[in-house]
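quick one: flavin-adenine dinucleotide bound model?
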Amino acid sequence: MALFLLLIALVAVSLALGMWRASPWQWAVGLGVVTLAWQCGFFHGGAHWPQIGFFGFLTWLALAALGSLSIQEVRRRAVVQPAFKMVRGILPKVSDTEQQALDAGTVGFDAEIFSGTPDWTKLRAVPPIVLTPEERAFLDGPTEQLCQMIDHWQIRHSERRMPKEIWDFVKAHGFLGMLISKEHGGLGFSAQAQSLILGKIASRSPDVVTIVMVPNSLGPGELIEKYGTDEQKHHYLPRLAQGLEVPCFSLTGPTSGSDAATMRDIGYVTRGEHEGREVVGIRLSWDKRYITLGPEATLVGLAFRLFDPEKILGAKEDIGITVALIPSDHPGVNIGRRHLPSGAAFPNGPNWGTDVFIPIDWVIGGEKMVGQGWRMLMECLAAGRAISLPSSATAGAKAMLRVSTAYGRIRRQFGLPVARMEGVEEPLARLVEAAYVNEAARAVTASMVSRGERPSVISALMKYQTTERLRRAVNDAFDIHGGRAICDGPSNYLQAAYQLVPVGITVEGANILTRTLITFAQGALRSHPYLYKEVQAVQDPDSKRGLEAFDDAFCGHISFAISNVTGAFFHNITLGLFAEVPERAQGLEPIYRQLSRASRNFALVADFTVATLGGGLKVKQKLTGRLADALSEIYLVSCALKRFEDDGRPEADRPIVAFCAANGLHRFEEALRGTVENFPNPVARTLLRVLVFPFGRHYYPASDELGGKIVRLAITPGEVRDRLTRDIYISNDPEDATGLLEVTLAKVVAAEEAEKKLERAIRAGTVRRYHGIDWIAAAADAGTITESEALLLKEAEALTARVIAVDHFAPDELTPNYRKVAPNLGHNSRGVVESANQS
Ligand SMILES: Cc1cc2nc3c(=O)[nH]c(=O)nc-3n(C[C@H](O)[C@H](O)[C@H](O)COP(=O)(O)OP(=O)(O)OC[C@H]3O[C@@H](n4cnc5c(N)ncnc54)[C@H](O)[C@@H]3O)c2cc1C
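yep, here:
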């Protein structure tokens, strides 16, 4: 009994000291009190002068040693210095490009999650969606008009290119210069506005959004705006803003895809003739592919590795990755033929050049920015990745929900709208979740970028999570529509999304790489409260300064690790009842508590992973991928709570938030459990099992009942459905395939009671429903339905027949201008056989 009491006291004191991040002397005092209590017999029910035996003496010695670690000199000699030397010895060399990727961007709410004790006020401080009147007018005006102009069948099938009127419209209204400042002739819109505008266009056509998205993301416009010389800004930015120049950005080559920094494209600093004058310039050879807008581009942004063998610019020979602007009509520039990415109509193709001379002034930012290319790209990507693809993936998910809820309510089988069947309810519920969560996280993240953040870790997780959720949403929409989705044609509103989903998955960092390498393996270093400081300290060439910085970071890290061990265990054995909840949670307390607890567990497992795997993180991608998922789920559910609050806590949305939170926490746990169960170190694995899962699993997916409830909300025309699909393009024109859905849905809902009466009469055999019979008139004659109900049913049936119709074609309508084309096997864009050893 006494031993049991001692154990309880030790655990209680340790939990308290650990969670309060006590210093060594405080630990010594706390544990000393327990030791004294034991030696005075308190745990045996008595009280006497301390009886200190041999082990008691050793205990006091250990406590004294522990307390002495609060003395800087002792601590440094005994612990910090040996650790400093050891870490310095084993730390793998961080390459220049890795270092630049690490340095790019800012740390934001991701660091709160990594801290294990997220400060919810920081998330709440991110402004809700705010647009200026000008931005709102642009969204409701030219963006709406553009969406109305789009005929996706003409674009995707008949022309297989972007129609001239679309190009003219986007150029004339400044769509291509949304990120260019007003000062330079652009629209100067906020990231939030750009995100909503791109999303609205994407909800109508993934092809058209691409030609608007590319000039507004990583590429010449952004690079010149941020790093260009004054001359480049004054010359190019107004021209780009007005669409007088069409830009593309060429980074990827046949041998350098995900590993873009290993590009073989090369430039040598040299002297040459330009416009009749001898100038310092660069002689370039490159071979790029997959370049969006490339075939239409007038201005090529080109990334290459620069060398200066004659040391014309200075002492350095290998200058590094550099970015230059090259007019596409410059002698030697070859713009090849077109690729056909997923059958898309947006321009995409290769470009190349051999020994092309350009003046040094064409480097973005001029001579002083040579070698700075990778840093520039990483900095822009840190913000850009948060906007372009998350916007279109979010709008895509909302559009999938909008059309599937309408179609599911209109399409009847077995005498019921298919949306009312439990089997179909499941994918519909997933669509509600995808639309709600994607929008929540999109809005929060775009607001972060609008206020100047460049969230590298959050933007990476947003990119892969939103595009993966869209992929699932498109598949769900397909399943709900059945054959109606599969037969392509002008009335098919799902095929374009289905075809183009893989593009979003692949570009701006293919998802597998982004999930398994970028989000956690690099994110941990960036967002962890101490890790990056420790790494910087050991890499400091000034050892004395490095040791001092390491002392701070290392001690902070130790107390952080102990606080995670104790904090996670405490919250897990108390089921999160005492976990942090922000003020005014108003009914969301249980979710906030579980998120705080989840964050503690994440911080603990993440820290263990980093500590035990160290440099091996890059290859243990199954673990880092799962940790990226765990981090993502906490972020996404947090954003869902923020959205609910920003929307003014609409009661009707509460079940949707509960559904998203339950599933998000469940997936979080799956990811964390998978990490712990596959932990390579058996001791750490066992310890983590005890600390994180003392009673087994905690979270279960949302119930079937809750799923049914949110689907009933989403398939009912009205406020909740509109809020779930806000800011996408919605047509009410019955001559438009999606407009027809809206019109029909309203009619079908109005005719529902009459439909039930008709179904009953058919089942009873009073009325027969076969071709050649007017069953509605028969039901009216039999008195089953009134005349006005018959009229309503007739209208609903006529509209429904149009909704469920699929396109058909004469054979020659599908084979315009067929010409046999040889497959490009082993030939590059120039028609030259690729050799493994290109020089
Ligand atoms: C339609 C389209 C438009 C594009 N537009 C442009 C453009 O405008 N400009 C431009 O420069 N580029 C563009 N790209 C190129 C795009 O960025 C690349 O396709 C992308 O970087 C992936 O390269 P890859 O296709 O060669 O795949 P690979 O690099 O061959 O990758 C194959 C797979 O391996 C995975 N993988 C690779 N390395 C790792 C790793 N270390 N860890 C884990 N997984 C890994 C990837 O995630 C991927 O799933 C475009 C591509 C497409 C398809």
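Residues 107 and 285 are 37 Å apart (CA to CA).
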